[in-house]
Write a structure and sequence with these properties.
By secondary structure, the chain is mostly helical. The protein has helices spanning about 10-30, 35-45, 45-75. Helix 2 (about 35-45) packs across helix 3.
Length: about 80
Amino acid sequence: MTNQEIPQPERERERERERERLAREELKNNPTGTMKDAYDRATIGNLGELVSTLGWKGIGIIILIILMGIAVKSIFF
């Protein structure tokens, strides 16, 4: 079947599946590299998008940074 023979809604679904597959592969290959993208989305979106995009490694890094900031503040101030 060529693109002319495939109905429009089916082509849109195929494009969406391809985008989702590429996004999953990118996240699998570089899990913490998408942190900037997640942060940028969170400034526009909501906290749920940030958490779902970062994954457990990214959230762990953010928690460590917050804890280190609290420790530095309590030591010096």
